Amino acid sequence: MEQRLFVLQRLTAMLMAPLVLGHLAVILYAVRGGLTASEILARTQGNAWWIGFYGLFVLCVAVHVPIGMRNILIEWLRLGRGAAGAVALVLGLLLLGLGLRAVVAVGGLAA
Question: Which of left, alpha, beta for 47 (phi over 0: left; psi -120 to 50: alpha)?
């Protein structure tokens, strides 16, 4: 199991690297362009590309972060693997839920 989690965390990191760079590029473009929140939402709502981009980003984060937190709980706090896994699962579900909620809102899927 540890080896699978190791590989899964590295794979999500490989996917997240270009997504983070893309996200930062969009932020710089929006800030330098003086775009308002409503102008940004007008560009993202209903746009399948942005919904997919940020949906994939959220999915990767919801997998990647809990694995790292599980390792921290085990190594630093000496929590048992079962308890650390349970905490990581809850964290992953929380990140997934909150992230998808944001994707739905920014993508205009809630209306």
Answer: beta
